[in-house]
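Hi P.,

Sorry for the delay on this. The queue was packed all week, but I finally got your sequence through. Input first:
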Amino acid sequence: MKSRKIENNSNQFKTIERSGILEFIDHHRRTLNVGLSLLGLMVIILYYFCGSTCLYLAGTVFGVDLKIWGVIYLCVFALLAVFRQDALGYVLLSVGLGGELFLVGYQVVHRTYCPYCLILALIIAMLFLINLDKRKVAMAVLSVVLGFVFLLAFFQSIPLRIDTGGQTLPSFGRGEVKVRLYTDYFCGPCREIEPAAEAVLYDLVRKDRINLTFIDIPIHQHTPVYTAHYLALAHREKGLDRVLQIRKALFRAAENRIEQGEKLREYLGGQGYDMINVEVKKNAAEATRYIQEDEIGGTPTLVIVRGKKKIKYFGKLEVIKGLQTLK
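Then the structure:
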């Protein structure tokens, strides 16, 4: 009898606890909706500025970066919550949940995981649960499917390849140690890494202790244009000292948000580089092969190959540590 009473009391306590949580959500739903939306916006802003790495996971819908769509989505939902448009907000959340299911699945398939994307997916899932309405399950399911199918149809990922006008990748130094530095001109941490690495790499190449190759990863949609211009200039200038200056100029251009080829050529002309029209046509098989062999998932990444031993350093701090091992 006592055990039954204890069990009944335990079940009753759990019921009270659950009802207390639900009551709290009911009374603070609007605050939770706005608060979590703001948290999601903060995550997107952090993702935009990359932190210490830029992940090789990006895409567009109708040519617009997915991060921008994320900002618009969360702002619209927050406004619907503020103006008590609960029905529309619930549909929007359901569509968003379907979209996040697609994006998480995309990461699983490609075995490239973005912590910012996963956190944002968790926030959308939490918002959906907070606003869950059992009376509208059919509508929610339909909206989830709609969101999934929409991204399946219109999401365009940046392909795992680099377009370089068919030119080969230049390398520097005749050392036995192979060094490959993967960066993106629009990646904040990469912008900090290359100047920091410049002195070390130049000295090692000069002493023929390493064979150095720079490989651009097109995380951002305008990077292929920059890559084509880098290769055109690098093959013309040839020397590493000049190539390092070229890369500095390209990083500055990206920092200034110069995105079109014509404006980039004007900028480079102002820096003393006489540019002719540079077209991005053919795929550089060499660059694609390196990306696949080294299993590159983001930038900055430093790969050091000594004989049969390969070590990969990912992220700003790790790359700096890897450079120190070369000295």
